[in-house]
Amino acid sequence: MMIVYKSRTGNVASIVSKLNLPNVEIREGLIVDNPYFLITYTDGLGDVPKVVEDFLKDETNQLNLKGVIASGNVNFGLYFCKAADLICENTGVPIIRKIDLRGTKEDIETIKKQYNLEVMSK
Length: 122
Ligand SMILES: Cc1cc2nc3c(=O)[nH]c(=O)nc-3n(C[C@H](O)[C@H](O)[C@H](O)COP(=O)(O)O)c2cc1C
What we know:
Elements: E1 2-6, H1 11-19, E2 23-25, E3 36-41, H2 50-57, H3 59-64, E4 65-72, H4 82-91, E5 95-100, H5 105-120
Parallel strand pairs: 1-2, 1-3, 3-4, 4-5
This protein binds flavin mononucleotide (FMN).
């Protein structure tokens, strides 16, 4: 298990740094051959960032995705963290957490707990 993430302005990177789990940031062409949780920011009006969308088009990457976490801004209202809903709809994986900006201690604890459950389920 590992964390795969994409950050543009540092909020997701901050969340990842608090998790102390193996992680890799998405760049063009990345293939992940291990089960992982995806953490992404939300772009546009509830959109999945293009680079994340492209990453998920790869069959291996889609097969290893076990859960999604999105960071957004609650001021976006109905579109808050909608990237997570879209990924959930398109891949069938559970939404682990929707996080406002850099999140809280509780957000970090929830991700860690779900991550450990996923590790133990193997
Ligand atoms: C152009 C732009 C569009 C955004 N659109 C949304 C949105 O639709 N929904 C949402 O919840 N957050 C939205 N956000 C907020 C970001 O997803 C949020 O600040 C996130 O924490 C950024 O993560 P990062 O710092 O790792 O890039 C948007 C931010 C920007 C700059």
